[in-house]
From TrEMBL:
<dbReference type="InterPro" id="IPR000277">
    <property type="entry name" value="Cys/Met-Metab_PyrdxlP-dep_enz"/>
</dbReference>
<comment type="similarity">
    <text>Belongs to the trans-sulfuration enzymes family.</text>
</comment>
<dbReference type="InterPro" id="IPR015421">
    <property type="entry name" value="PyrdxlP-dep_Trfase_major"/>
</dbReference>
<keyword id="KW-0663">Pyridoxal phosphate</keyword>
<dbReference type="InterPro" id="IPR006233">
    <property type="entry name" value="Cys_b_lyase_bac"/>
</dbReference>
<dbReference type="Pfam" id="PF01053">
    <property type="entry name" value="Cys_Met_Meta_PP"/>
</dbReference>
<dbReference type="InterPro" id="IPR015422">
    <property type="entry name" value="PyrdxlP-dep_Trfase_small"/>
</dbReference>
<dbReference type="InterPro" id="IPR015424">
    <property type="entry name" value="PyrdxlP-dep_Trfase"/>
</dbReference>
<keyword id="KW-0456">Lyase</keyword>
<protein>
    <submittedName>
        <fullName>Cystathionine beta-lyase</fullName>
    </submittedName>
</protein>
Amino acid sequence: MSDTSKLANVRTGTRIVGAGRRKKWTGPVVNPPVWRASTHLYESTAALAEGPRRNEDGRFFYGRRGAPTQWALSDALTQLEPGAAGTVLYPSGVAAISGVLLTVLKPGDVLLISDNAYDPSRAMGKGLLSDFGIEPRFFDPLDLAAYEEAFCDRTAAVLLEAPGSLSMEMCDVPAMASIAREKGAISVLDNTWAGPLGFPALEKGIDITLMALTKHVGGHSDVMMGSASAGPELYARMRQRAQQLGTVVSPDDAALALRGLRTLNLRLKQETDSALSIAEWLSQREEVAQVLCPMLPGAPGHELWKRDFSGGCGLFSFVFKGGTPADRNRFVDALELFGIGFSWGGFESLALPIEPSAYRSCMTWPPKPGETEDRFGVRLSIGLEDPADLIADIEQAMAAWHVA
Ligand SMILES: *Cc1c(COP(=O)(O)O)cnc(C)c1O
C-alpha cells in the first residue's frame, strides 16, 4: 500500500520530506493537489449503500471526512510521531484541545490542568467543561508530590504543557505521564512548543499529544489548524468524536500546513540557534533579571529539557529587573524588527508583553519569589531573521526602557 514504507528506517530530516506523499494521492506530481470537495460521487446505489458501513482512513465518503489533501497531512504527522496510530486534524489548536477533552471526559469527571497551561485551555476548563459537568482542578506542575495527591477516583484525564505558557517552566513530563497511568487517568500533552521533532511525546509515555499547527507546522502566519495523535484505541475514539462534532479542515489550509511541514526541521534548527544566542546575550544585560528559556544552560528547567528533549524552538521569555509596565511597553514599542502579536512559530519575529499572574491559580509569578519588583516580562518568538540584527534591535530598544 505505502510508497512511504521506505521511510521506516530513515532519519527525521529525510522522513519529513517524504511523509504522507503517497502516489495514489499525489499522482505524478510532488504534492497532493487541493481536493476541494463536499460531495463525493458513487458509481452506483450499491456503492452508495456500502459507504456508511465502511468508516476508515483514506476512504471517500463525504467532505466532512476529508479527501486526499487532508489525509496526506494527517498521514505525514502520524509518520513523524513515533507510537501514533493516527492523527486527527482540527480547525485550530483550541479546537484540537476541546476535541480531545470532549473525547476523554464525561460529566462527573475531574480534569487536572497544569496551572501554567495555555490560557484558553484554562478557560475551557472553567467554562465549556464546567458547563458540561466536568470539574477542572489546577495543580503546580513543578510539585510532583502535590500533583500525585491531586488525583481522586473521579480524575479521568490530565492536561500537561511543557514548557509552560508565557513563564516557560519545564516539568517532568515522563514522570507525570507515568503517575497518570498508574492512577488510571489519560495523559494529554499540549506539545505545540517542541512538537514531535523535539519531544516524541507518545514514546515518553503520554497518551494523546496535540499541537497548534497554526504555530510551527504552518510556520508562515497564514493558517490556523490543530492536530492530535495517539495510539490505536484513543485515535479511534478521537476520530469518531471529531466526526460527531463535525470538525473538518479545509483542503487549502491542509495544503498550506503540508508545505510548512516540509521545512519544519530546518526552521526549528535555525530558530533554536538564534534564540539561544539572543537568550545568552539577554542574560548578560544589566536590565534583565531572568531569562526564561529552558534551552539556555543555567536557566530554570534546563536540566529537564536536556534530559528529555532533543530540540526546542525560538519561543522564550525574559523578565526585566525592576521597572514599570510602562517601561516594558516602551521597550516593546521601540523594537523595529519584531511585530507585536499573540501568535508565534512564524518565520518573522514577534514580541509580547506578558503578565502571567493573571492566568495562574496556584503557581507564583515572578518565578523567583521574593523579588517581586522583577515582574514585568516580555515573550519573544524568534523567527528567521539574522540573529545579529535582532540583537542590535533589542539593544537599541533597551535605551527606551532606560528612559524614566
Ligand atoms: C496558540 C496555541 C494554541 C492554540 O492554537 P490556535 O490555533 O491559535 O487555536 C494551543 N496551545 C498553545 C501552547 C498555543 O500556543
